[in-house]
């Protein structure tokens, strides 16, 4: 196979025209840098579950550095595999990403173990990853490869999430890789950074890149969640919120605590199970990364909203029965897409009762169990704790609340590209369903008269 040669090129190894297994290889005259190395949680066969590091242009033996944008597994879940196969170089990310990434990778192994599937690496490889990780501060320029300098900036997506700015050569080319980002305010984080010393190519995620992907204003979204919770509790039901351990969980905690304290949401115990408590502890350890209000509250007012009296951490699965049989309550549990974790057991127990409601607050990847339940498929096969297949007939209410996302919606993506300073020459779309990547690229090309591409997996684009 012949690849387009040039001084700077980028190859899509995963996460292009799809959401999941993000991985981009940047090749320069002297360096090879991998941006993200994720898994696809919606897929099980290895050709579609993992990045295409099995074939050229990727070559593990010449890789200089890996940059991880944030700790979600679709961006770092495959990283330890590189160490298993002999990678010995550095991994760069923010300090909170380093902590959270380890938690999530170990959880991934734990979930695989409980489901009886064989993960592509083990704990020893996660440890190796930790030993090779170099945490960077936002805004600090670092030489990461012979002719590549990296600067991380706040991406507003989850704690520690970063936009990566790569400066190649001495002024040869500048790449901005957004990773997942939020160009808007949330309770948890400040909006993504949009100003750089230079930028020629920007690579943007497109999760919510379709014209109809416009989220309602935050206030409305919070009120909608409050209404659904109040209605369910008033009707004698329980609310189940599947949440990814990192990001949406903490955002929803802030909303619930704030609304209950102000008397707008019916007071009820909130049970939290899964890795959420560990992940929340990492948030508390890095208040300087949080939005101003939460940061001030923790640092100067001695009030930590994550440790609110409304919240009870469920330490052991044996407590579930009592919770499910008890008074009205709210349950937040992992995983966010019903792919495993304690939420499955709660779903099994709560699904048959029509008074209960399951509320989706995060993106459900095509192919996941969460997506199927969200679409209203009433029968869900689940492997029970005893390893038997069980069909859950769901009668509970299903609600999806759009707008809590840590991703930019269509308007925010377009605004981001428009306001990027300086104006880029080229935009590439990734991390979105096929039609969204193409649609967004076409729109940006016409609207801003810039080169716009939606690369496919194993395509190499010459940047310079
Ligand atoms: Zn993410
Ligand atoms: Zn992602």
Strand content: 15-25%
Query: What's the CATH topology label of the largest domain?
Result: Metallo-beta-lactamase, Chain A
| Poorly predicted parts | none
Number of strands: 22
Average pLDDT metric: 95
Gap between N and C termini, in Å? 20 Å
Characteristics:
alpha/beta; Metallo-beta-lactamase, Chain A; Rossmann fold; 2 domains; seven-stranded mixed sheet; 14 helices; binds zinc ion
Kindly describe this structure.
With 464 residues, the protein is α/β, with parallel strands linked by helices. The chain folds into two domains: 8-212 and 406-462, Ribonuclease Z/Hydroxyacylglutathione hydrolase-like (Metallo-beta-lactamase, Chain A); 218-400, 3-Layer(aba) Sandwich (Rossmann fold). It is built from 14 helices and 22 strands. The chain has helices at residues 46-49, 73-76, 79-84, 95-115, 123-131, 218-234, 248-261, 276-285, 292-299, 320-325, 342-350, 369-374, 410-419, 434-448; strands at residues 8-14, 23-28, 32-35, 65-67, 91-94, 133-136, 142-145, 148-154, 162-168, 173-177, 201-205, 239-242, 270-273, 311-313, 330-333, 357-360, 379-383, 389-393, 397-400, 426-430, 451-453, 460-462. It has a seven-stranded mixed beta sheet with strand order 6-5-4-3-2-1-22. It has a seven-stranded mixed beta sheet with strand order 7-8-9-10-11-20-21, covered by helices on one side. The chain has a six-stranded parallel beta sheet with strand order 14-13-15-12-16-19, with helices on both faces. The longest helix has 21 residues, at 95-115. It is globular and about 65 Å long. The mean pLDDT is 95. The protein binds zinc ion (2 copies).
């Amino acid at each position: 196979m012949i690849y387009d040669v040039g001084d700077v090129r980028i190859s899509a190894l995963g996460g292009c025209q799809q959401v999941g297994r993000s991985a981009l290889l940047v090749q320069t005259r002297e360096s090879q840098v991998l941006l993200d190395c994720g898994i696809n949680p919606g897929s099980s066969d290895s050709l579609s579950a993992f990045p295409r590091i099995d074939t050229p242009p990727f070559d593990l033996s010449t890789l200089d550095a890996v940059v991880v944008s944030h700790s979600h597994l679709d961006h770092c879940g495959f990283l330890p595999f590189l160490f298993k196969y002999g990678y010995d170089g550095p991994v760069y990310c923010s300090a909170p990403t380093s902590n959270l990434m380890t938690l999530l990778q170990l959880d991934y192994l734990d979930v695989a173990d409980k489901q009886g599937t064989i993960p592509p690496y083990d704990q020893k490889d996660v440890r190796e990853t930790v030993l090779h990780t170099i945490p960077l501060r936002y805004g600090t320029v670092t030489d990461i490869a012979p002719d590549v300098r990296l600067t991380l900036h706040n991406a507003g997506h989850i704690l520690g999430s970063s936009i990566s700015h790569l400066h190649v050569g001495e002024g040869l080319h500048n790449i901005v890789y957004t990773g997942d980002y939020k160009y808007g305010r949330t309770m948890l984080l400040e909006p993504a950074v949009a100003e750089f010393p230079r930028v020629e190519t920007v690579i943007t995620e497109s999760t919510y890149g379709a014209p109809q992907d416009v989220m309602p204003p935050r206030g409305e979204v919070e009120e909608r969640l409050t209404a659904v919770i109040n209605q369910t509790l008033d009707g004698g039901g329980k609310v189940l919120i599947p949440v990814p351990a990192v990001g949406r969980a903490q955002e929803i905690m802030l909303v619930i605590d704030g609304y209950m304290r102000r008397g707008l949401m019916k007071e009820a115990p909130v049970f939290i199970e899964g890795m959420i408590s560990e992940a929340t502890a990492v948030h508390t350890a890095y208040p300087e990364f949080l939005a101003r209000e939460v940061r001030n509250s923790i640092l100067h007012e001695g009030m930590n909203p994550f440790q609110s009296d409304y919240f009870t951490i469920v330490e052991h699965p044996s407590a579930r029965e009592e919770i499910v049989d008890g008074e009205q309550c709210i349950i937040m549990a992992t995983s966010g897409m019903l792919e495993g974790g304690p939420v499955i057991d709660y779903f099994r127990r709560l699904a048959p009762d029509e008074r209960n409601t399951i509320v989706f607050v995060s993106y459900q990847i095509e192919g996941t169990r969460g997506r199927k339940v969200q679409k209203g498929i009433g029968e869900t096969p689940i492997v029970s704790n005893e390893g038997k297949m069980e069909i859950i007939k769901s009668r509970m209410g299903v609600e999806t609340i759009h707008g809590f996302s840590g991703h930019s919606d269509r308007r925010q993506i377009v605004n981001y590209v428009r306001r990027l300073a300086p104006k880029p020459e080229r935009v590439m779309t990734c991390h979105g369903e096929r039609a969204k990547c193409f649609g967004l690229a076409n729109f940006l090309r016409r609207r801003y008269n810039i080169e716009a591409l939606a690369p496919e997996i194993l395509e190499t684009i010459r940047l310079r």
